[in-house]
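Please predict the structure of the following assembly.
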Amino acid sequence: MIRRSILKAFALSAISLPMFLTTPAVQAQDAQTVDIGVLLSMTGSLGRGGNNVVLGMQTALEEVNALSPSRQFRLVIEDDESSPQAAMDGIRKLVDVDKVPVVLGTVGSATTIPTASYSLSKNIAHVGLTASSPDVRSLGKGYFSIIATDEVMGAALAKFAMEDTGKKKVGIIVANDAYGVGLAKRMQEAVAANGGEVVSEVRYEAGQPDYRAELQRLFSPRPEIVLAVSWGDNARLLTKQAHELGLMQTVQGAWYQPYPAEIVNACIAEACEDVKGLDIAADRGERFQQLRAALETRVGSDVVIDWFIGVGYDAVWVTALAVDLANSAEPAAISAALPKAFEIYRGVSDADMSVDADGIQRNQEYGSFVIKAGKLEPYTAN
Amino acid sequence: MTDIVLYFATMIGIYTIAAIGLNFQYGIAGLINFGVVGFFAIGAYTSGLLTLAGAPVWAGLLAGSLVAGMVSALIALPTQRLNVHYWAITTVGLAEVIRLILLNEDWLTRGSFGLVGIPRPLDAIVPAGYQTAAFCALVWALAVICYLALRLLVSSPFGRVLKAVREENDLALSLGKPVFSIKVRALAIGGLLIGLAGALYAHYLTFISPADFLPTVTIIMWAMVMIGGRGNLAASVVGVAVVTVFLNSTRFLKDVIALDPQMIASLRMVVIGLLIMAIVVYRPDGLFPERKKEFADGDTPAGR
Amino acid sequence: MNLTQILINSLVRASELGLIAMGVTLVFSLLRFANFAHGELALIGAYLAYALSAAGLDLWLAIPLGAVATGFIAVAIDKALFARVRTAPGLVLLVASMGLSLFLKNVVGAIWGTKSYSFEGSLARSFSFAGGFVTSTQVIILVVSVIAMLCFHLLLSHTRLGRAMRALADDSELARARGIRVEAIISKVWFIVGSYAALGGALIGLETVISLELGYSVILPAFAAAVLGGIGSVHGAMLGALIIGLAENIVLAIDWSFLPATSGPLYIDTGYKLAVAFLVMVAVLILRPRGLFQGTSGD
């Protein structure tokens, strides 16, 4: 008899997780092992994101396994090399060879769409991670997403920036990929809806060593607000060069960024001082603090929880919860239980994680943050 | 298990068609195409866009290979000096431009969002459960047709002129052969095949985006051709199989030994690079060199 | 459009690119092949300089040391690979250099991983200059590059090695007949082009970031500069680098609405930035197949 102990932890959600972690482990000898297929960019252009997702996943895995002595979970991780072709190789292995009952992945839209189509064609549920292209809606039954699609973040960030500054002239600079361009489209709509004007829209190619020409173009019509989609090294270079060219100073801190936790450690503190943005884990509540504590013992006290870590953590939790709910490791049963699991679960990336008919997050709450002296701090809009 | 075997068989078939096309350009005509991935992408997008707009798949495949062939001929324009190095540089740049067009012309290509839901041929007529096998059979049938057609071409008078051009450019020029137009035709024929392979790729995966067509694909196709052997069209399939198996071997190896994915990804490419260099130095004609007498010029009858 | 800023950016770009393009053209004129691995020499130079400075060495020691080390690596590469196929047809050398490029890039990736690095932890001091902004780093890059190019010019025109190199580029058979030790000269040339490319790579890294894409991102512009200047002409390559630098910065900054049949402001999409150098090169190849400056060889 397998005890559905993870479910219990959430059904009695008044009880906090640490209490369960202290319950003594029961007999583990006849434990059932459930494989969770994970397809991620461990290498290539999205490698940094993928590695953080794994960090979050492993943290969650330890927690659920401690809670559920009679059903142990195991991650089967495949690298998609940030390439759709390698992603297809990987999903075939997970589905056809490893025969996993559920797949979590991937971090990019270009790899998520073809691989999820394949999982679904084999009637295996596919939980998308940070792929935010609205096209994921077309995948159909069996696809679920941990994060909301572009329209939510794009609209929220534009509105936040305009309300915060009270200004109307907006410049947009985004990475030329599905993530950046998708957000740009939504930002444009939101700027117009809020009575503003997009004076320049610039795309840059991620991973290039020089963005001065792009920045010159962005700033030439003198925007009062900049909405920038960047991460890691790209963010570092953009803010650095904008600063060196004397352009950053012209917007006086009105530089807004989705998911600023992704850039805070990569940027030069002086160059990204006062950069603001929206990030997941709006309330920074109890679940977030638990994850923080777990990660501090795992990787050290200077850890910054970005959305990749949060999403990876939530993905494993919600999947384990679905298995527990279904009380079965059968693909169809897990798939059927996932909507319920999303509804019960209280996540790090969002407290309310319930999904709509397409399996996409119904709503997404963000918190506003500002970078001060190289640290991310909560921020209240004016 | 059958599924994954069929999957790799289909992929190998698709890349074999491209490799035969590339080997024709390099091995038979002596032209360097370092922008293979660009022509692959043209085939994929042409066919994908047309079929999404309602054209039948066969028309998409045809158009995909024709457009790729035409663009192949076009790259000859800036390099009329027939300098092999300029050809090479131009093809690299062209592949980059093609990728940027796919990425930036959203109105046509949907940019980085890629093409979703490209139809698969045969799905309508083949009963469920046999569709992947049917697609695999289609790919291999096309591969065999391409191979036979090129072999016929190589042993034709045109093929002999091509070889003359490859071996002794100046001599062929002095004999009054229209070297430039011969090279353009050879490029176009190779481009047809590479485009066809790209189109099949699009219809097999049913989703393509610019991320599918990065410069690494070019290098991998070159490794396939080099291993197979310069000018030996049939052996290209061996090169394709070896490289495909090698690139995927670490997926299965890592389940046995713990390996750092970052290190593995780099080392895989280190090995491919080393292999290309080793072949150039030690086996310049590949592991399976073209049998000289099969392509002997002049009046020696082809065959044994 | 800020003209001063465009000029500053172009000059800095040209001074980095010139050091790399120079080697491309030199290898081409002496060894008769387009070295697709040349960008990776710049990559190695940047990583070595970074590693040395991270180990505690002063930057102004780390960069030259990294360049010298890369020079030796280039000589070793020649001995291990290109020397073995010296007489092979051009297309074989091309394929070899493509394999080499993949090899070198991924060896660097295996050692340093795929994350990128920067030399400095703080912002470079920037000051306003005639309506544009220039950083102290950029001034240093310009000065270092101009000195390096001047040194090379003197070497080419005033030393025995320079004369031997020119003789070799003009006619290797004749040079051999005149008793020039060809292989020794070739080694010296590899050392020079290796260290110059490394210097160029380190300067790019100094100003921006050091990432695995550095090699690939400079190779097309470097080829374009070499072709523009007329393959074989070192001075032409330097001028070519200046033109590419200007083109890359101006094409995107220009409002093309002055062209007929346009309405409203018309800018070229910044997404096409990477194609600018290549398109300029193609235009030159069509219009003036021998390059803008009709380079012969090794002048």
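Chain A has two domains: 5-147+283-351, 151-279+368-378. The first helix of chain A runs from residue 5 to 11.
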